[in-house]
Amino acid sequence: MWRPPERIKWKPQPGDWPSKEAADGSRLFSPVSLGSVVLEQRTWIPAMVPWRATGDGFVTPQVLDWYGRFARGRPGAIVVEATGIREIPSGPLLRIGDDRFIDGLQRLVETVRRESDGHTRLFIQLIDFLSIRRRPDPERFLREFLEITDVHRDTLSAADWDEELIRDHLVSMEDADLDDVLDERELESLRMGYRERVTDTHLPQVAELPKVLPDLFASAAVRAKTAGFDGVELHYAHAYTMSSMLSRLNTRDDGYGGTLENRLRLPLEVFGAVREAVGDDYTVGCRYLADDIIDGGNTVEDAARIGFAFADAGMNFLSLSRGGRFEDAQQPSVGAAAYPYTGPSGYECMPQYFSDEQGPFGRNFEPAARIRRYIRSAGHDTPVVVTGGVHGFQQAERILSEDNGDIVGFARQALADPDWFLKVRLGRGDENIVCEYTNYCEALDQKHVPVTCKLWDRVNMDEDGILKTPDGKRRLTAAVWEPDLDIDEALSE
Ligand SMILES: Cc1cc2nc3c(=O)[nH]c(=O)nc-3n(C[C@H](O)[C@H](O)[C@H](O)COP(=O)(O)O)c2cc1C
Ligand code: SF4
Question: Is 148 helix (H, G, I), strand (E, B) or coil?
Fold first, then answer.
């Protein structure tokens, strides 16, 4: 993963923990409404893919274990991982593209209700993504995958060569010399692996995105509602279809690219279809980027206008992330796929402890505050979720008291200690296991293997009934925190 060249090593700074009385009186632990849903507190676990579904996208006992463990900490809301809305295989990523997935998702909802004792609201993130292939073996690419065209023949002055001779010649060339023969997309397919873009409108499946996505998202949202989720989060962030439609890099000329108005068209049509399908009283929001962090991509100013358009259309919440794009991803090794969190934009999405002067904590606070101010000044009070390096109570409380956001997201901190919320509310914040922002978890995500935290995945391995990775080396969820008190009684005192 790319890291800022300054390589300044930062340590988490959780600060002082509040007494139970101070926590009771805080904004963080005060309720907030998202459309028709009320969160008991302004804490939020954003989507995190844990790679625990079956190979064809069904809920497993490991999925239930993962979300049930988060629910025991009773955060205000949990957002279930990016869940695929199409009927396409996507490895152990949850899917919701057909009614056959509803039963498992219903069990997931029941698990979170039970484990949180009804205190945590549950949303699910709905995602669409375009096709991406692994980086090929160069010789195989040149012999089998590359389509030989007249441009190649002209460049090589090989008008009368047969195709096999051209391929032999390309294979014999130095990698750097191929720059003169292959075009930009062919070179990308060779060196990074083939990747579709929303601008590839010569491909029928890309041209038809505006035709098919509203229904696909709407059907998925109806299934989420049927399964019992409190609402849905449309995934309009990072490297995926909808974020790419929103980006300034979207130059489609079919009315869905170019100007901001055109780039907003499909995201708003998708939202409109979802809203119509689930009704006005169902909570629907989205996650999108406060900044693309790539050359030529959206800036905070664009994101403010986008936020206004979403609020104006009637979204019930806006969750802000940043970066996480393919455009600046590092070259994967042969046989691996590009991962959109390996370049500078990926760093901004999940900043780790080797950082620059600004440090890894709260890089999205100021952009979020600007976007929120813009939306407020236009007369909308849509709640804004702010995430990024939050691990301390005062840090979270400041986001709210300084009007930078309305809800605070804790992703890696909740992974490091799912009981953070409960411990802080009980005045026992000093028992928290604080995230060190090593990104060990994120490296597991990159390999598409079960995500765990290095602070607990080898602790109490003999505990009865715990689920482990197939090799038996890591436990899959944090050990249970058993305070010597009755939690409900203590909270009501
Ligand atoms: C293992 C892992 C998986 C993630 N999966 C998703 C995802 O499915 N959807 C999403 O919007 N963000 C995803 N993220 C990004 C987080 O939601 C969050 O924005 C990011 O980690 C920064 O917040 P933090 O500093 O509190 O961890 C993931 C992060 C991690 C560490
Ligand atoms: S592995 Fe644990 S400590 Fe390291 S970044 Fe992930 S959650 Fe934090």
Answer: coil
Interatomic CA distance for residues 331 and 342, integer angstroms: 9
The domain ranges of the chain are 8-132+214-492, 138-191
pLDDT at 67: 98
pTM of the predicted structure, to 2 decimals? 0.97
The CB-side HSE value for 155 (13 A sphere, CA atoms) comes to 15
Query: Which of 83, 289, 291, 350, when mutated, tests ligand 1's pocket best, judged by the most ligand atoms within 8 Å of its CB?
Result: 350
pLDDT in tens, 160-201: 899 999 999 999 999 999 999 999 999 999 999 999 999 999
Residue 416 has pLDDT above 90, yes or no: yes
Ligand nearest to the CA of residue 233, numbered in listed order = 1
- Rounded to 5 degrees, φ, ψ at 368 are -65, -40
At 351, list the tokens. Answer: 């900043």
Task: For 265, list phi and psi in degrees, rounded to 5.
Answer: -60, -50
* Residue 368 DSSP SS3: helix
Specify the residue for token string 């800036």. Answer: 299
Measured CA to CA, the distance from residue 398 to residue 419 in angstroms comes to 21
For residue 391, which of 4, 11, 89 has the smallest C-alpha distance?
11
Q: What length does the chain have?
A: 493
d(CA 445, CA 388): 17
Q: What is the pLDDT of residues 77-130, one digit of tens each?
A: 999 999 999 999 888 999 999 999 999 999 999 999 999 999 999 999 999 999
Q: Is the CB of 251 inside a 6 Å radius of any atom of ligand 2?
A: no
d(C-alpha 149, C-alpha 155), whole Å:
10
Calculate the alpha carbon distances from 70 to 111, 121, 374, 416 in Å. Answer: 11, 12, 33, 10
State both tokens at 372: 């929120």
Residue with tokens 């070179």: 187
**Domain 8-132+214-492 in CATH 3.20.20.70:** yes
pLDDT at 55: 94
The bound ligand whose nearest atom lies closest to the alpha carbon of 341 is: 1
Q: How confident is the model at residue 409 (pLDDT cuts 50, 70, 90)?
A: very high
